[in-house]
């Protein structure tokens, strides 16, 4: 077992028959090392920063950071501390901004520091497929777009806004361009 500083890395090596590796630990207390006092919620437990040399100012400037924060109640027990991860980045000449947070309860927020759902995105999310197992909701507009030939939305059940399930044997949920709404109707599109 050994540790060394290299030109480009801090390297720790361990050989063993078990699955245990080295750990990086940061111990945070208020007060002093000799006389520690209890931390408070929001105290940074560990900061990992990436800095780059910017030249003429003879300075290294931070470009990204991962913060390990304390969270929730601080209890005097072996398991009495909650933790969160904060991922921060910035653009040139900007300031570090939190982009993503993983809370102690496991919720993930992108664009929000206080997610209330398993995954909460404040802003625009995009991709080729969006899969919702039980429901897909929007407090604003739910928009789908496709190629010039049009987009497809498959709905197995549609309720709300005065529209209930259509009779699959005679009707389909179709877009009424005149009324700018969905309706249960016969699909006249033969193309």
Description:
With 191 residues, the protein is mostly beta strands. The protein has strands at residues 2-5, 10-13, 30-31, 36-37, 44-53, 60-71, 82-89, 97-102, 108-110, 119-121, 172-176, 181-185. The chain is elongated and about 80 Å long. The mean pLDDT is 79.
Task: Give a topology summary.
Elements: E1 2-5, E2 10-13, E3 30-31, E4 36-37, E5 44-53, E6 60-71, E7 82-89, E8 97-102, E9 108-110, E10 119-121, E11 172-176, E12 181-185
Parallel strand pairs: 9-10
Antiparallel strand pairs: 1-2, 3-4, 5-6, 6-7, 7-8, 8-9, 11-12
Shape: elongated
Q: What can be said about the biggest beta sheet?
A: 6 strands, mixed
In DSSP terms (H or I, runs of 4 or more residues), the helix count works out at 0
Q: Multimeric state of these chains?
A: single chain
The Cα radius of gyration reads 26 Å
Total number of beta strands: 12
Question: Which regions contain 5 or more consecutive residues with pLDDT less than 50?
Answer: none
Strand order of the largest sheet: 5-6-7-8-9-10
Structural class computed from helices and strand pairing: mainly beta
Strand content: 25-35%
Succession of helices and strands:
EEEEEEEEEEEE
Summed over residues and divided by their number, the pLDDT gives a mean of 79
Overview in brief:
Helices cover 0% and strands 34% of the residues.
